[in-house]
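Need residues for this backbone.
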């Protein structure tokens, strides 16, 4: 078999006009340059560093990373060229090595020259090495500035990132305090362990089943996710886009690999590594500025979310949940309850919004309800729902609250008119019903409100991508006369991005529902999906 030409060209690219304008561990990108004559300005080539025949040969994690790169590059190319659309084309028939063409379609390009004929337009912008190098320089500057949070598109249009108003109350000290709180709870649990509990070993091949985990497995899992988040923060500070873990299959794979990796380690070795990883995590968070952590518009790739959410997910919410489950499995119920109560108090004392306190309270209610403390659960449930009203609908079907269903006090809470007045309207549509309606006379407009990187990897066939953070600015693209269905991955039912988007659209007078179970449920039932080849 002949050698793949793309596998041998990576080292020669720096000598070409513009050189390598972007690269990460998986891909590299350069501007296309013809051997002779001028080249079409705005034609980028993305290639994988390792030999991959096609998109289907990527792992889920690699596909997600490629999608993120495509989204970043498309935005940069559109901003720096003034293009009205960016095409992403994949052929790899002549050279069986995954490579994607990103092509800028300029305004007033005649329709007969759209897509693969775009370079044949006689008036298309053309350039030689000097013009290509200049464009690549602008693209590199844009990519760097986007991650730092200060972007001004080359063609003079767009919003300055990082210039939005913020809460003036410093939150970084409170975030760090919450991370230290979690570590203290971990140390407290360790101090209450017997030698037998320290030395117990989990069941093989049960890396995703917490019932089979021992204390060592929980501690190893927590340190691994902190380690991954620390790496992500370092990636962010290098000006790159980190991976995200929205695919539960990938999450389970990481959990399983972590279980296997640490199964034969001693408790002392895991404890020492946990301390080392925590210190590295804290150091990395301390390097982040107040604005980087808390401004929802600072990082374009977060699509309107805050970086602090990622930090707290893996430094507070996940480990506290793990520690509570671990304590309960050890029969240390009182210790588990004390941890949850201390967590609520710590979040109350922080500057996190009331919704954060509501989540902490609701989680505590669930632990009470599933562990024989219905009175305590019912005592705290009203405040949890008042602070996080979207959890009212969740509580009606939450299996953790099953023991409370027949209690009149529970029914009284859920029918309290004062509380119900605070609850946003929620209307879910089952995947089967959506599939049927899409074949009807007036099919709904399906809006994927996830980030563009998630959308590119796979989405409901025919869905348009309007990330939640950009929804308000894109309302003009959504016709009022057509029903709308929003969706996301729905990992946090009751407060998911899809439901938040639906609430925003209802306020604007739209007839809108949300896909129950989100994209995972749609895909699981084998309804039509597609990957994006056009951005």
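Answer:
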């Amino acid at each position: 078999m002949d050698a793949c030409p793309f596998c041998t060209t990576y080292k020669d690219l720096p000598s070409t006009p513009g050189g390598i304008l972007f690269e990460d561990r998986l891909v590299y990108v350069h501007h296309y340059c013809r051997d002779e004559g001028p080249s079409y300005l705005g034609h980028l080539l993305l290639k994988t560093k390792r030999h991959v025949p096609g998109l289907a040969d990527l792992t889920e994690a690699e596909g997600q990373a490629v999608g993120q790169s495509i989204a970043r590059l498309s935005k940069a190319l559109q901003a720096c060229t003034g293009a009205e659309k960016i095409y992403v084309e994949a052929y790899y028939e002549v050279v069986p090595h995954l490579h994607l063409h990103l092509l800028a379609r300029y305004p007033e390009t005649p329709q007969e020259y759209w897509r693969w004929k775009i370079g044949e337009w006689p008036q298309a912008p053309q350039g030689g090495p000097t013009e290509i190098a200049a464009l690549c320089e602008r693209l590199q500057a844009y990519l760097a500035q986007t991650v730092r949070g200060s972007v001004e598109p080359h063609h003079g249009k767009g919003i300055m990132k990082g210039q939005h108003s913020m809460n003036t109350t410093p939150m970084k000290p409170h975030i760090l305090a919450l991370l230290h709180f979690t570590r203290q709870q971990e140390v407290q649990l360790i101090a209450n362990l017997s030698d037998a509990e320290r030395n117990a070993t989990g069941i093989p091949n049960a890396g995703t089943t917490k019932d089979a985990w021992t204390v060592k497995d929980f501690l190893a899992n927590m340190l691994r996710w902190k380690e991954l988040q620390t790496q992500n923060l370092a990636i962010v500070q290098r000006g790159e886009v980190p991976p995200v873990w929205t695919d539960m299959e990938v999450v389970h794979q990481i959990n399983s690999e972590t279980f296997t990796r640490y199964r034969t380690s001693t408790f002392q070795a895991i404890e020492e590594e946990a301390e080392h990883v925590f210190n590295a995590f804290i150091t990395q968070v301390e390097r982040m500025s107040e604005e980087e952590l808390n401004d929802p518009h600072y990082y374009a790739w977060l699509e309107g979310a805050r970086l602090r959410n990622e930090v707290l997910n893996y430094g507070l919410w996940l480990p506290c949940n793990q520690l509570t489950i671990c304590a309960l499995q050890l029969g240390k119920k009182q210790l588990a309850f004390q941890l949850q109560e201390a967590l609520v108090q710590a979040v109350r004392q922080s500057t996190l919004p009331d919704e954060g306190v509501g989540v902490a309270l609701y989680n505590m209610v669930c632990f009470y309800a599933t562990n024989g403390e219905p009175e305590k659960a019912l005592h705290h449930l009203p405040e949890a729902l008042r602070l996080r009203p979207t959890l009212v609908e969740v509580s009606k079907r939450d299996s953790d609250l099953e023991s409370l269903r027949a209690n009149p006090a529970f029914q009284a809470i859920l029918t309290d008119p004062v509380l119900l007045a605070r609850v946003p309207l929620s209307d879910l549509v089952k995947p089967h019903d959506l599939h049927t309606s899409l074949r009807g006379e007036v099919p709904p407009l399906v809006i994927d409100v996830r980030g563009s990187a998630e959308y590119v990897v796979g989405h409901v066939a025919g869905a348009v991508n309007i990330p939640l953070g950009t929804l308000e600015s894109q309302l003009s693209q959504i016709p009022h006369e057509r029903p709308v269905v929003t969706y996301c991955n729905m990992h946090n039912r009751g407060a998911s991005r899809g439901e938040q988007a639906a609430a925003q659209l209802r306020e604007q007078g739209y007839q809108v529902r949300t896909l129950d179970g989100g994209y995972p449920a749609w895909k699981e039932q084998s309804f039509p999906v597609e990957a994006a080849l056009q951005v």
